[in-house]
Each structure stands twice: as structure tokens, then as C-alpha cells.
């Protein structure tokens, strides 16, 4: 499946080929910190298929709990995460951040990694109150309803 994506501000644009059956959720504490939420959803690219169409990525190298070093790439202007990858040059498989992909509604997770680090409250999501849009957030921190 061909996917396209962009960062929040539009500086970065990309496209790649992915297998939509390989989407996964990662609950590791690095993904929680780097995504700013409880988990990250990723899809691997087909080797060498990633094309950066505009912009220049900023790269940070993180050593994981396993000892593996991975490039973490993001937009230098707005900070949107784009992918992680093994260190080094040449054709490789990248782990695209599904949130930056325009076709994200078609990329349904089939697996979960690092579940030992999953936030316990995730199981309560079906019972949490839902709103179709965000209410106005007031200057004193409350929602104006």
C-alpha cells in the first residue's frame, strides 16, 4: 500500500510503501515519552521505499533498553515524529509514525509490543466519557460547557 504523510506544519512531506497487516502498537516507555502519550502506533516501510518529498528531518539517536541504537526523526520546526530506523546509510526498513500518515484510518494495529509497560488505564477506554469535539478550553484551565 502506498502511503503519504506530512508533519503538522507542512514543512516535511513523504511517501512510502507499507504492508497494512504489519501495523503495531508499541507500549515501551521510550515511545510513551517520545510520543507524549500512552503508546505509539507504527508501520514498517518496505525496504528502501521511503521518499522524503520536502523538508529536511532532524535526527536524534536513542539507545533503547535492548542496547540497540535507533534514529528518531522529526520535523525541526513543529516536532512531529516521522520515523525511527536503524543507524546507518542505505536502503533500510523504517518504522513510520502512523499519526503522520494521511491514510492512518486504514492502518489498523494487529500486534502490541512491550505490553509489560502498557498503561493500566488503557483497559478503561470504552467506559470513559466521549465527546465528538473538544469543548473550549478556558484561560483558568477548565472546559467551558
UniProtKB/TrEMBL annotation:
<feature type="domain" description="CENP-V/GFA">
    <location>
        <begin position="3"/>
        <end position="111"/>
    </location>
</feature>
<keyword id="KW-0862">Zinc</keyword>
<dbReference type="GO" id="GO:0046872">
    <property type="term" value="F:metal ion binding"/>
</dbReference>
<comment type="similarity">
    <text>Belongs to the Gfa family.</text>
</comment>
<keyword id="KW-0456">Lyase</keyword>
<dbReference type="InterPro" id="IPR006913">
    <property type="entry name" value="CENP-V/GFA"/>
</dbReference>
<protein>
    <submittedName>
        <fullName>GFA family protein</fullName>
    </submittedName>
</protein>
<keyword id="KW-0479">Metal-binding</keyword>
<dbReference type="GO" id="GO:0016846">
    <property type="term" value="F:carbon-sulfur lyase activity"/>
</dbReference>
<dbReference type="Pfam" id="PF04828">
    <property type="entry name" value="GFA"/>
</dbReference>
<dbReference type="InterPro" id="IPR011057">
    <property type="entry name" value="Mss4-like_sf"/>
</dbReference>
